[in-house]
Task: inverse folding
């Protein structure tokens, strides 16, 4: 289990170039980092700096194309294949996928479209030996209209697909808003979780600023045997470097 700062969140709306973002991660004691979009970044720079600094990229997103709209399925698969090629260059083994927004027909049909679309991606993922993690997001505060908000529903879908290349991204911040009982759900869905994001609530700041007991959550995760990444996906109100150091010191894992 390891901490992995999400540079797109940590440095959101800050005038810090990509190279300096990565060096800030390294200089504050982290060995892993992640980001959202790869298509707006200099892959040559990423490839070079990661190698020179001895870092690992734990996860990045695939293209933002709807999984619940059957008409978009071929575009989703094309976006996934493009993302896999970028991921291979960077040594990334985990791709994050959103589901798209809810459409104006039955939820049951949209869930079937999502399941069928993911099933159609299995052979692509198996060939590349990569994992796709599907992310529920809260629709109350940050993402109104988004299709998948419940980890319960996500876990049921992952269980039906039953393939190790497709799992869930459990975002503690989002699921605290949507469902609560995050420690229980992290334990219950351990076998379905491929990556975790963390931030405190309310405010989506660093751990220790809100209502979530991250010492307890991290201890609970250790007991489940989780060995994957904990993506630091929070928005610091000042000095990203100071906040990264604070988390490193106060939440050792």
Result:
């Amino acid at each position: 289990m390891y901490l992995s700062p999400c540079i797109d969140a940590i440095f959101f709306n800050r005038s810090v170039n990509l190279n300096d973002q990565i060096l800030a991660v390294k200089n504050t004691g982290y060995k892993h980092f992640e980001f959202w979009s790869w298509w707006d970044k200099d892959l040559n720079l990423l490839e070079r700096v990661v190698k020179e600094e001895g870092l690992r990229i734990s996860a990045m997103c695939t293209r933002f194309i709807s999984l619940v709209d059957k008409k978009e399925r071929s575009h989703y698969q094309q976006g996934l294949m493009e993302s896999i090629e970028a991921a291979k260059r960077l040594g990334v083994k985990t791709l994050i996928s959103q589901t798209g927004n809810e459409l104006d027909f039955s939820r049951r049909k949209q869930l079937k479209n999502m399941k069928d679309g993911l099933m159609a991606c299995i052979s692509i993922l198996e060939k590349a030996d990569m994992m796709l993690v599907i992310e529920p997001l809260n629709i109350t505060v940050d993402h109104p209209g988004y299709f998948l908000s419940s980890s319960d529903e996500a876990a049921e879908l992952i269980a039906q697909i039953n393939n190790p290349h497709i799992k869930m991204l459990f975002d503690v911040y989002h699921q605290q808003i949507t469902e609560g009982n995050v420690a229980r759900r992290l334990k219950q869905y351990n076998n379905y979780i491929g990556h975790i994001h963390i931030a405190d609530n309310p405010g989506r700041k660093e751990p220790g600023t809100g209502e979530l007991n991250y010492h307890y959550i991290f201890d609970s995760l250790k007991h489940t045997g989780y060995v994957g990444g904990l993506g630091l996906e929070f928005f610091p109100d000042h000095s990203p470097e100071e906040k990264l150091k604070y988390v490193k010191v106060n939440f050792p894992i």
